[in-house]
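Quick check before the chapter quiz. The format below is the same one you will see on the exam, so make sure you can read both the input and the output lines.
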Amino acid sequence: MITWLPTMLQHDGADAHAGGRRKLEPDPHIHAVILSAAAEVVRTEGVQALSIARVLSSTQLGTRAFYRHFESKDQLVASVFLEMARAEVVRLEQRMSDSDPVRAVAAWIDGRLDLAFNQQVRSDLRQMSLEAQNQMVAAPELVAPAYREILRPLVEQLTLGNDLGEFAEIDPDGEALSIHGVVWTNIERHWGIAQRDPAEIRRRVQSFCLRGLGVAPEAIAAVLSDPPPNRPGRGSSR
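Here is the expected output.
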């Protein structure tokens, strides 16, 4: 239980002066507390269980404190997914660093497939990813910023590879969406049929996506023959 917040907030919005109350500026610490509480609800019970009242109860904050940091529940939900995406991007970029564009794209694919195959990553991100995917149908505007963030490093490498001539003439944004669709389909299939061989799925998905980008067969073979990458985040949620 967060016992220090009521003391911090006892003057919330109460800097009185002639003409009324002066609005306080957002506090990054309180913003983080609200976001953390909301993320825990979404992660454990889903978006439908999230409410402003529940967040205020768990954080011991008042209504003014909430609306000083978020305009609405929808903005809070969008912020939860964006925060999750930013943490995921840190992990993906670690995997993609010091690689040429072809290997970086393969590393992004491999990193996202960790949702299905890496127990520690899956335990932290699976529920949030499922919730985000569900919201793509119910309320796409809430998760669009999060998806753009997760796709950003992939789009950057696709753009670079296109400029260097390592890919065929491609539309990086469109190809990133297509690659994400292939990866997510295989993640869901593995969750439904867990006996499938992870190594074979990784190889097949990477090969399929790289072929679609126009990568030469010998370059694909070289990528697939590389030793398994060191996976930052194994044994942790990041």
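If your answer matched, good. The beta strands are 15-17, 20-22.
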